[in-house]
Design goal:
This is CALB2 protein. This protein has helices spanning about 15-25, 35-55, 65-75, 85-90, 100-105, 110-120, 130-140, 150-165, 175, 195-205, 215-230, 240-250, 260-265; strands spanning about 125-130, 170. It is an all-alpha fold.
């Protein structure tokens, strides 16, 4: 159910990170990570109204559905009929556009996994606020963006509020992965897999064929193929298999994927 109050800040030419978050939360009414269906119609209608109110002149007499179709062709980069966070960031630029900044730094699943391993410094399986602050600070430096401590704090809190779905003040792997473009977020392929500790242990034991306490690339291939095909009811092609394997092995310790790292992928967060 969409919020009844006036949509915030759509009339502004440039948004702060927290204003962007408010707009996102307002229109992603069901909190599923997309603006879609009725939400999308509401968003486009309100955006049109805000632009007219700000003096942006109409240059077309096209119908609402035609204008919306044109709008989606321009901004729906992966043509899935929905608007995700990175696409909204291009429609409504923030002052530093920190979300797009993230995409330049981490543009693929394997880069994302390597970044996760680097910034989960205590190997807890979560990125806490202080680790996230370090991550964002490095990100902004790499992108040559100026920021001060207050701005860094605002970005950290905004990312936490945006992605911390269970409100525990830290991000697990599946929450943080929502920063990735949908087509790069391979974790979405396994999102229906909700394993208990018992199920996970059974799977780990089954695929650790040589019983050495870790999963190697060959064992991981077998596991991914079976789980993907069970979850998606279709075969996993070689190209995607290689891509998923490389992404997950970026979490590994020299090609050895131990329980804790595999837990993050299959369970979304540590279960032990």
């Amino acid at each position: 159910m969409a919020n009844k109050q006036q949509p915030p800040f759509l009339h502004l030419a440039e948004l702060t990170a927290s204003q962007f978050l408010e707009i996102w939360k307002h229109f992603d009414a069901d909190g599923n990570g997309y603006i879609e269906g009725k939400e999308l119609e509401n968003f486009f209608r309100e955006l049109e109204k805000a632009r007219r109110g700000a003096g942006v002149k109409e240059i077309t007499n096209a119908s609402f559905s035609e204008k919306m179709k044109e709008f989606m062709q321009k901004f729906d980069k992966n043509a899935d009929g929905k608007i995700e966070l990175s696409e909204l960031a291009q429609i409504l630029p923030t002052e530093e556009n920190f979300l797009l900044c993230f995409r330049q730094f981490v543009s693929s699943s394997s880069e994302f996994m390597a970044a996760w391993r680097r910034y989960d410094t205590d190997r807890s399986g979560y990125i806490e606020a202080n680790e996230l602050k370090g991550f964002l600070s490095d990100l902004l430096k790499r992108a040559n963006r100026h920021y001060d401590d207050q701005k860094l704090h605002e970005y950290t809190q905004t990312i936490l509020k945006m992605f911390d779905t269970n409100g525990d003040g830290k991000l697990c792997l599946s929450e943080m992965a929502r920063l990735l473009p949908v087509q790069e977020n391979f974790l979405l392929k396994f999102k229906e897999v909700k394993l208990t500790a018992e199920q996970f242990n059974a799977i780990f034991t089954f695929y650790d064929k040589d019983g050495n306490g870790y999963i190697d690339e060959q064992e991981l291939d077998a596991l991914l193929k079976d789980m993907y095909e069970k979850n998606n009811k279709k075969d996993l092609d070689h190209q995607n298999l290689a891509s998923y394997r490389d992404s997950i092995m970026a979490l590994s310790d020299g090609g050895k994927l131990y329980r804790k790292e595999l837990e993050l992928v299959l369970c979304g967060e540590p279960i032990m």
